[in-house]
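anyone seen this seq b4? input:
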Amino acid sequence: MRLQPGDTIGFVAPAGPLRHVKDELKNALHLAEGLGLRCELGKHVTDTYGYLAGSDEARASDFNRFARDPQIRGIFALRGGYGTMRVLNGIDYEALAANPKVVLGFSDLTALLNAIMLQTGLVTFHGPVAAHPVTATAVEGIKRAVMSAEPLGTMRVSGVGSLAHGEAHGRLVGGNLSMIAAMSGTPFAVPCGGNILMLEEVNEAPYRVDRLLTQLRLNGDLGSVTGLALGQFVNCVPKIDDDRPSFTVEEVLRDCLAGLKKPMITRMNVGHIDDQWTLPIGMPVSFDGNAGNFTVAHSAVA
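predicted toks r here
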């Protein structure tokens, strides 16, 4: 499954439409070149169907064409937005299981990454989307995760947050908080029990973050994890028409999570930030929250 220079990847748009097609496709081609990879575009990546990048059938067909093609060694998402959940029933999981590939994305792609892991047992990759500019640091992170037989090893957070504590070991699952909550109760629900749950979010007011976390607490997901790996909660501030006063998102995280008494690592370079890590969903990982160390001891693509 490891990507090597000269391999071909497919670019897909399983969620929202490209907004600035020329520039976004240029970014994607630049990323492929930076990784030393060839690329093919899905037939429907420039389609627009309301807030979707084409019909559900069209978006699924692009993904499945690449999943079934043995010459395509990886499938990278161009962008997130909304809509990935709508294609989960149309994905050819058997084709992926028979011919494993690197599947990369984040945000709305949380639905697909975890569904593939759940349906096939394959490792997927939570990392940058290709239509956005990807920094040199993030490109190196992709290379280390999907193009090297060496394990990612230990990565350090930029600063240990006040919620961080304890050590945890388990399979890494999760990603975007909104998507994890939305999939709860479906056949594609993120398997939290006994695993390390990674969470990140963007543009959600603190009370909305509270609601999402409360849903996961009430359904038992938060209480069943071995640890919580918190990424970045970007622009999660009160909106103009929200009730005031408001908690900050940091206060919401403390109020909703501290009482669980679960090991936590915080401020990970995960989510809607430039220099984000690429991490393997479905792989055993560990962390030391007190030290701010997150470790992937085995290669996901050996």
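The mean pLDDT is 97. The CA atoms of residues 12 and 262 lie 37 Å apart. kinda curious what u guys think
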